TrEMBL record:
Residues in GST C-terminal domain copies: 82-204
Keyword Transferase attributed: yes
Record's keyword terms, sorted: Transferase
Catalytic activity: RX + glutathione = an S-substituted glutathione + a halide anion + H(+)
EC number: 2.5.1.18
InterPro entries reported for this sequence: Glutathione-S-Trfase_C-like (IPR010987), Glutathione-S-Trfase_C_sf (IPR036282), Glutathione_S-Trfase (IPR040079), Glutathione_S-Trfase_N (IPR004045), GST_C (IPR004046), GST_superfamily (IPR050213), Thioredoxin-like_sf (IPR036249)
Record GO terms (molecular function): glutathione peroxidase activity; glutathione transferase activity
Organism: Ladona fulva
Presence of the UniProt keyword Transferase in the record: yes
Name the UniProt record assigns to this protein: glutathione transferase
GO biological process: one example: glutathione metabolic process
Chain ranges of the GST N-terminal domain: 3-80
Source superkingdom: Eukaryota
Length: 204
């Protein structure tokens, strides 16, 4: 019997969307469980590290969005062709995560004066620093992050870049043609197009 998959996250795209993309790409049926923010405090301590997303695979709980994406990537032959290429996927996702942590820290910052201090260096230095490099990596790897091959790193980064753009209200892709082309390539895959059409419409 095929394993069962239940993905639990908030009713947003953000860190669950790469997982949803990969499940959709693989034609894997899954329960897309969305928790209301008001329900979360009561649920937090029932999760392994007090965070979402989590995914139940045949009832076993797994967590950490990059680990989940990597797991699905291996299952779907989207982790490169050998250990080295698998490492290349991990490295670019980990580098991207450094950026993501900074942008999500900014987005969540409640103290407006701290937020304003962080704004200029984040928008004018940090984000361009990372996006220049990510764009160059795609250019040098024939349109993907790893050696011209479709990998889970493409899915992970394309989805999370979209969230960075939406949450920080910035349209940066026009400045980064290789990231833009990769985003269009992923979003135009037939399974992903179908998922985008049917997924719930959410704020980010
Ligand atoms: N490293 C984790 C981070 C998970 C994470 O930060 N989740 C946030 C939502 S994006 C969360 O659960 N926030 C609620 C909380 O911390 O109480 C991953 O990649 O899955």
């Amino acid at each position: 019997m095929a394993p069962t998959y239940k993905l639990t996250y908030f009713d947003v795209r953000a860190l669950a969307e790469p997982i949803r993309y990969l499940l959709a790409y693989g034609g894997i049926e899954f329960e897309d469980h969305r928790v209301a923010f008001e329900q979360w405090p009561a649920m937090k301590n029932t999760t392994p590290y007090g965070k979402l997303p989590i995914m139940e695979v045949d009832g076993e709980v797994i967590h950490q969005s990059p680990a989940m994406a990597r797991y699905l990537g291996r299952m779907l032959n989207l982790a490169g062709d050998d250990e080295w290429e698998s490492l290349l996927c991990d490295m670019v996702v980990d580098a991207f995560t450094d950026l993501r942590m900074l942008t999500s820290g900014f987005f969540r910052e409640k103290d407006q004066s701290i937020k304003e201090k962080k704004r200029e260096p984040l928008f004018n230095e940090t984000i361009p620093f990372y996006l220049d490099r990510l764009d160059k990596q795609v250019e040098e790897n024939s349109g993907h992050f790893v050696r011209g091959k479709l990998t889970w790193a493409d899915f992970y980064i394309v989805c999370c870049l979209e969230t960075i753009g939406t949450t920080l209200k910035i349209c940066f892709l026009d400045k980064y043609p290789n990231l833009k082309a990769l985003t269009e390539k992923i979003n135009n895959l037939p399974q992903i197009k179908e998922w985008i059409e049917k997924r719930p419409k959410t704020i980010f």
